[in-house]
Structures are given as C-alpha cells and as structure tokens.
Amino acid sequence: MDEQHADDTADAPQGPRHVPVLLDRVLALFEPALADRDAVLVDATLGAAGHSAALLSRHSRLTLVGVDRDQAALRLASERLSIYADRTHFVHAVFDALPDVLDDLGYRSVQGVLFDLGVSSMQLDEDERGFSYARDAPLDMRMDPSTGLTAADVLNTYAPGDLIRVLHDYGEERAARRIVEAVVRARRRAPLRTSAELVALLEGAIPAAARRTGGNPAKRTFQALRVEVNGELDAVAEAVPAAVRALAVGGRVVVLSYQSLEDRITKRVLAEHSRSKAPPDMPVVRPEDEPELRMLTRGAERANEDEIAANPRAASVRLRAAERVRERAA
C-alpha cells in the first residue's frame, strides 16, 4: 500500500505524506519489462498510487490494474490518476483475488505485479481507522471498513487461547500470555473500545525491561491485531504465487514487505519457483524442470540511509523481486 508506511510507523516522525518507498529502485526493476511496448502491470496494493503514478508517467504504453480493498483509497487513487483514465482499471478487491481480477478484465498474463504490503500512511493518518497506537481512536483496523470483524471484536470475543496465538504468531510478542490475562480481566469489567485503552493496558502488562527496548511496546500487539483482522498473511500466501503464475515471460514481480512474517512468505514462494525441479543427480534437466523465475535481488534489499532520512517509514522495508524466464508448465 505504498506511500510512506511500515508497521512501526507511529515511532517515526510524521513527515510529508505520499512518499513512495524505494521508488527509484521499483522503477528500475520494472523498466526492462515495461519499456517501449504495450504492457499491463497490476498494482495489487494501490493505496495512494505513488508508485503507479510514476510508472504510468514513465511508460506511455502501460495499462494499470489498480487493486485495493479500501474503497476510499480507490477513490483517491482514481482522482490522482485521472489523466491516465484511458489506461487504468480500478478494482475493489483483496489482492489474493488477483486471478479473478485478471480473468474479469480478460488478461491472460501481465508484464508486472507490484505488492507494497502493510498499512498505508493514508490509513494511519485517519484517526477513525484505529491503526495507530500514537492516537486515540476506535479499535477498528479494517482495511475495508465495510466488512469483517474489528480489532475490538477480536479483543472482546476471542477465547484467551486464540488471542495468545494471534499475539504470538502475528506480533511475535513474548509477553502474549500476560497481555491476554490483562485483556480478559479488563473486558470482564467493560469491553475494550479505543486504542488509548489498549495502550494503557499494554503499558501495565508488558514487563518494564521489554518496554525499554525495541520501540513502542504497543506496536507488536497492534500489528498482530491488524494482521488478524485483515487476514493479511493468508492473503499474501495466496497472492504472491498467483502473481508468479500471472506473469508473461520477461514479466517481473516486485514485493515490498514491512515485517518479517510477510517477507518470509515472499522469500519462500520466489525461492521455490527459482529452483530447478530436477533431482540433484539428473544428468540432463528437462525444460519443464528448469526454474520458472530468475531472482533479481540478492536476499532482501533495504532502504539506504539517505532514503530513510528523507522518508523514515522506509526503515523497515524489505524488497524482493524476480523475473519469469520460461513459460509455466501446464
């Protein structure tokens, strides 16, 4: 969801909005797949469309498919990209619906897919959405406010064991059990409704030593709740393989992640498709066993000091990219 974001953004200074993370690197990675040809690129996490605006400006024969689950983001992006109206499609969907989106539009393959994962600064800056622990707001955290459970619903209705699982698995929170014990005590008195109530509870539940390191101690719990509310990891696990399948030969996928759980999924999927499927002792590798992808990044690329200084929300980004080098096996 481009535009200057990360999972620990509340720790960062609030600089100017709508600064796409690693924009120059993203443009360079897509250049060979898009330059001087008719091409289709899916921005699967459109947000405020910073990356997409730059790509459309750079490539006059590019058609964009912009996907976002947030209808407010789609409205703002369509306004921002109105000068490219004849080369854009906007789709209200979660990005794991990529195969259906492309099928509905009649595209059998595409030349590029971009994922800029996590919560966008636009969502963080809207107090009523409840994504940020730095502002008091209702505990909502839905990227699509029209559907699904809120963070308050999760806190107030989940069984203690399920809450511990959410905080441990999605927030990597070591104090998950203590936090959940405090949540259960609090919700017996009255439901938790606001971010300020949750932050105060966390300050009392997290050991003092843990509060002194690693940034704001609330960030892990807020991340875990947001991931659970929006089904983010399941969506990433479905969407990245779908993007790989959708690529034409020479097409490229670029993924920007802001927390380790998303990055692990991306790393695993891209690595799987960039390895030969032939047994190690096979003297001749059949064409259908050759790797489908060629990695374009060595490990996960990070923002440099200059970019982080200009855009603090780039501090936690991890970028991975790959190119399709042969047709997908039937």
Give a structural overview:
The chain is α/β, with parallel strands linked by helices. 42% of the residues lie in helices and 14% in strands. The chain has helices at 23-34, 50-58, 71-80, 98-105, 121-124, 151-157, 160-171, 176-189, 195-205, 208-211, 219-230, 232-246, 260-273, 305-310, and strands at residues 39-43, 62-68, 88-92, 110-116, 247-257, 293-295, 318-324. It has a seven-stranded mixed β-sheet with strand order 3-2-1-4-5-7-6, with helices on both faces. Helix 3 (71-80) links the parallel strand 2 (62-68) and strand 3. The longest helix is centred in the last third of the chain and has 15 residues, at 232-246. The chain is globular. The two termini are 32 Å apart. Mean pLDDT is 88; it is low at 2-16.
Overview features:
single chain; 330 residues; alpha/beta; seven-stranded mixed β-sheet; 14 helices; 7 strands; 42% helix; 14% strand; disordered N terminus
Oligomer: single chain
Distance between the termini: 32 Å
Strand order of the largest sheet: 3-2-1-4-5-7-6
Classify the beta-strand content into a percent band. Answer: 5-15%
Rounded mean pLDDT is 88
Major β-sheet annotation: 7 strands, mixed
What Rg is obtained from the alpha carbons, in whole angstroms?
A: 21 Å
Number of strands: 7
Specify the structural class.
alpha/beta
Q: How do the SSEs run, as a string of H and E?
A: HEHEHEHEHHHHHHHHEHEHE
Shape: globular
Number of helices: 14
> Which bin fits the share of residues in helices?
40-55%
Low-confidence stretches: 2-16
